[in-house]
Amino acid sequence: METLESELTCPICLELFEDPLLLPCAHSLCFNCAHRILVSHCSTSKPLESISAFQCPTCRYVITLNHRGLEGLKRNVTLQNIIDRFQKASLSGPNSPTESRRLQPQRPYTATISGTIAGTIGGGGGGGGTSGSSARGSPATSSHSHPHANHANHANHGNHTNHTNHTNHTNANHSPAVVAKMDPRISCQFCEQDPPREAVKTCVTCEVSYCDRCLRATHPNKKPFTGHRLVEPVPDTHIRGLTCLEHENEKVNMYCLVDDQLICALCKLVGRHRDHQVSSLTERFDKLKQTLENNLTNLVKRNSELENQMAKLIQICQQVEVNTAMHEAKLVEECDELVEIIRQRKQVIAVKIKESKVMKLRKLAQQIANCRQCLERSSALITQAEQSLKENDHARFLQTARNVAERVAMATASSQVLIPDVNLNEAFDNFALDFSREKKILEALDYLTAPSPPSIRDELCTASHDTITVHWTSEDEFSVTSYELQYTIYTGQTNFISLYNSADSWMIVPNIKQNHYTVHGLQSGTRYIFFVKAINQAGSRNSEPARLKTNSQPFKLDPKTAHKKLRLSNDCLTMEKDESSLKKSHTPERFSGTGSYGAAGNVFIDSGGHYWEVLLGASTWYAIGVAYKSAPKNEWSGKNSSSWVFSRCNNNFMVRHDGKEMLVEASLQLRRLGVLLDYDNNSLTFYDAMNSQHIHTFEVSFLLPVVPTFMIWNKSVMILSGLPVPDFVDGVASDLQEQQQQQMGLCRQESPYLTGMKTCH
């Protein structure tokens, strides 16, 4: 009861829930307590009506309220009903008859039903009763029915403990309605006194309930009584085993797998189940229980996953609400700033118009004053001239008009005197307000989104032995602020998402403004994974991954290592057998043995993957491979533990290492030999490059840097280095290698084939 009461207590007021609200996080809270939480967040600037969210006091989950506030949350009606029933039970008291009948029998009754059924299934013997079982006899009859009832000493207490635990585990499987019908007190069926003492245990095997004294008397701690199942006291009608539906009073002890039902022994012997496949109750019980437990585990796991998924979705919904509110506030802020900028520009332009108006009017007023002054002088001169013209006396006219005539002539000749300089463009009609461009920009206002994922253009990407130039395109090029290039060595992992999440292995080149970038300092002959990220203020998006590879390390033949009977071309890419003895200085790195007509490359390789090809031409006798620097120069390559070669002698092809040779299959038309050295993955592979066919792979744990080596005994060969690894190389499967290794036999030194090879020498 105390545990139940704690579950029904509000975390705020520490009292039983009153008018509980069901929160979205599945916790509950009193309506008044929730109201007090909202009141605690109020202030003079933040009234109660404006509060739209609060935290659950149990899990801190943010509860968002709608316009109805707390009234918008659902009432936990089920919890309120439980509280009402709990309060009624508490008021009636634990000692009342009704409460005793309702509560006390639950544990022994429910435990015994489960334990009895389990015992019936497990042992096929005693079990729980059914509605069709016959009534139990008197105690005397019970004692006669079980001869072992007269034994002394009590039963095994270990059994008591085990079955008590099983009882507690199965307590909750039966409804209180069934329990309420039971008599809370179970009497001992073996006592001779009247009334009998209260039973402390029920023996499922004996189908009898015993008090403590009778239990010690009838169940001594010895066989066969140590195997009896003792459970908490249960009514007599519930300890009998389930009976067969077809044979009365026969207990079921088998399970028909065909009809999927419980049967008795008679059903199997003479009934309709005699030809059916059956199993023991224990076996069927274990199997069904295991299946149920597995399914229950999966269901619980799925529910947990669904809860986690739902929690994530709820969190995303909350984040959407927060982000939406933030963006709406940002929109209002940005638009207000635009309106303020337009208002300020309006004031500035209005001031400019007024200033231009004042300036132009001032100039026009000055010009008007000048014109008026000229007009007055001209009018006075005209008046004086007209007066002179009225004079009829020649002498007087000549005396007065000469001066006037000169002034009129001067005024007529000079337009500047009569007509001042007037600017007719000062009417302010060449001024216009054109905001069409700005209007289009305002009409195109919209929220900014993350740019579309860029696309890496594999066909435009280029590579050398230590660089890769990556090209990409973007549909939203004008909305991209910058690009970010990420790359790492490709390890063959197909799950790019998990590969991308392992951030420690990625190299990042930020703030790229162009649609291409060249990465330097890469390993030769190595595959890389590239991502391009397009970035702007709204976010970023990644391109699909692209696998690009660097070319192999370029190299040439080293003249200092060439045998004196070999002639190298000027570009040191071709070597030819030359029988004429040339005078070459002897050095430790030069091939010098009789018949060791070889030369080495001018690089030592200690990492990465490298591919080169050899144009064999008409040569039918050669050996091509790799070797350590310490490999002897006075014997064939492959005759020692420091070199690995593919060789041909006329029509025979073989691979050789440490003096051991193995025949391989190759076309007599082999004209182009491909060599792939994967130093990091410890392999050396030979291919027919023209036919894209695998020939042989050496699995080698390289300990030192290796150098390409070449030997010929006739004609000439040419090397092509610095090549990218061909695509057909990726298709070589390990099972093909195993199949070829099984078909090829390892030759011994004394074999006829090797004897023939020695003749070729």
Give your account of this protein's structure.
By secondary structure, the chain is of the alpha+beta class. 34% of the residues lie in helices and 20% in strands. It contains 17 helices and 34 strands. The strands form eight sheets. A seven-stranded antiparallel beta sheet has the order 21-22-33-24-29-30-31. A seven-stranded antiparallel beta sheet has the order 23-32-25-26-27-28-34, with helices on one face. Strands 15, 16, 18, 19 and 20 form a five-stranded antiparallel beta sheet that branches. A hairpin with a 2-residue loop joins strand 26 (643-649) and strand 27 (652-657). Helix 5 (106-123) crosses helix 11 (281-389) and helix 11 runs antiparallel to helix 12 (394-413). The longest helix is centred in the middle third of the chain and has 109 residues, at 281-389. It is flat. The protein starts with a helix and ends with a helix.
Number of helices: 17
What is the CA–CA distance across the termini?
101 Å
Question: Which stretches are poorly predicted, pLDDT < 50 over at least 5 residues?
Answer: 94-183, 733-738, 743-761
Q: Strand pairing plus helix content: what structural class?
A: alpha+beta
Query: From the alpha-carbon coordinates, what is the Rg to the nearest angstrom?
Result: 53 Å
**What's the shape?**
flat
Instruction: Characterize the biggest β-sheet.
Output: 7 strands, antiparallel
Q: How many strand elements?
A: 34
- Roughly what percent helix? 25-40%
Q: Roughly what fraction of the amino acids lie in strands?
A: 15-25%
Strand order of the largest sheet: 21-22-33-24-29-30-31
| Mean pLDDT over the full residue set | 78
